[in-house]
Design brief:
Elements (H helix, E strand, L loop, with lengths): L9 H18 L11 H11 L4 H14 L3 H6 L2 H8 L5 H17 L8 H5 L6 H11 L9 H11 L8 H15 L4 H14 L17 H4 L17 E11 L2 E3 L1 E2 L10 E2 L2 E3 L3 H12 L3 E13 L4 E11 L6 E3 L8 H14 L2
Parallel strand pairs: 1-7
Antiparallel strand pairs: 1-2, 1-5, 2-8, 3-4, 6-7
Helix pairs in contact: 1-10, 1-11, 2-3, 2-8, 5-6, 8-11, 9-10, 9-11
The protein binds a DNA duplex through α6 and α8.
DNA sequence: AAGTCGGGGCG
DNA sequence: CGCCCAGACTT
């Protein structure tokens, strides 16, 4: 698919929506929170579902609704009471958000959930996804609700190769769902996509049972296992360093790395692990035995290696004496990219 | 953009 | 048992 093309033609969109709804009506699980169009119950069930599987969350949901059957009851309860009914679910800040949202709805909306996306998103704990879920399921508005399930289903249908964490990928999926909303009742469509993602289009999907198989590009291309794409592993450890740009006139102090290890033999700035500038400066002074004057913070540099990430806080310092370790800015030896960027920060400052 | 929340699924 | 994970908020 090229830029500028519509994400999906209306005919495909209509067939997808139709197949989904037909499948949903025949296969959807009978879940208690689906028996109501009450935005309050949908809100509570969505907030609980964001952190647990249905099976785990159901007993909590039943207990919660039995104790707080409507939004006024929740708003008037104490936070401790709310937390005790959330206890075990985790993400306890969400319990607080749910409670705060109930109080706000009662205080400023007369106990009625707002019906617009923006007003919903203004409530604590409600972001893009939950706002879309409430608007479409409770109020039957054609609003996309993009969660992990929906992303998985539709990136596969589209054979979308971009990582799902990118906002551009979410925007594409959002457009497709918006298109499908023209061809199905929003409240069913939203639940149908999520249900398909939960039952069929799972991590290792059951493509034989999938109503979208004939339209699924990832299936056709044999790329089910590689889609959705995860962002390139940013699991590499993040290491914080303080790097010092020590200048004497227009020369900068550099040290040469050992001939083994990371950036072997390249020159670089003195840099000290950690993020505490005071400690790092003390360590620097004892390492160098030069008279230094601490300067300003020049900025932050991040640098990604294949196996680790650096975050450099770049500090300027000046030295009275200029030794052989100082190199003129217009005649620098080979320096790693991160430290070169750090030196560039100093040059920018000087040129202003 | 990246860290945090905290439990469950899964290998 | 360790690794990974989804959404909202925060910084």
């Amino acid at each position: 698919m090229k830029d500028g093309d519509p994400t999906m033609d209306a005919q495909t969109s209509k067939q997808l929506a139709h197949n989904l709804i037909t499948w949903y009506r025949a296969n959807a699980r009978d879940l208690p929170f689906r028996h109501s169009r009450d935005p309050y119950r949908i809100f509570i069930s969505e907030m609980m579902l964001q952190q647990t599987q249905v099976a785990t969350m159901l007993p909590y949901y039943e207990r919660f609704i039995a104790r707080f059957p409507d939004i006024e009851t929740l708003a008037q309860a104490s936070l401790d009471d709310v937390l005790s009914h959330w206890q075990g679910l985790g993400y306890y800040r969400r319990a607080k958000h749910v409670h705060e949202a109930a109080k706000q709805v009662c205080a400023t909306h007369g106990g009625q959930f707002p019906t617009t996306l923006d007003a919903l998103k203004a409530l604590p704990g409600i972001g893009d996804y939950t706002a879309g879920a409430i608007a479409s399921i409770a109020f039957n508005q054609p609003e996309p609700a993009i969660d992990g399930n929906v992303l998985r289903v539709l990136t596969r249908v589209l054979a979308e190769a971009r990582p799902i964490a990118l906002s551009a990928t979410k925007a594409t999926v959002k457009d497709v769902v918006r298109g499908m909303h023209h061809h199905a009742p929003p409240r069913e469509l939203t639940q149908a996509i999520m249900e398909l993602g939960a039952l069929v289009c799972v991590r290792t999907p059951i493509c034989e049972a999938c109503p979208l198989q004939r339209h699924c590009l990832a299936y056709a291309q044999g790329r089910i296992a590689e889609i959705p794409m995860r962002a390139p592993r940013l699991k590499q450890p993040l290491e914080h360093y303080i790097a010092f740009v020590i200048t004497g006139g227009d020369a900068v102090y550099l040290e040469q790395n050992p001939d083994k290890g990371l950036l072997a033999n390249l020159y670089g700035l003195p840099h000290i692990i950690g993020s505490d500038v005071t400690k790092a400066y003390t360590a620097l002074q004892s390492n160098l035995s030069m008279a230094l004057t601490l300067g300003e913070t020049l900025g932050e540099i991040t640098h990604v290696f294949s196996h680790k990430r650096w975050r450099l806080t770049v500090i300027h310092a000046t030295s009275g004496q200029v030794t052989e370790n100082f190199h003129a800015l217009d005649d620098l030896p080979a320096i790693g990219k991160a430290h070169r960027k750090a030196i560039a920060l100093w040059e920018e400052k000087m040129n202003k």
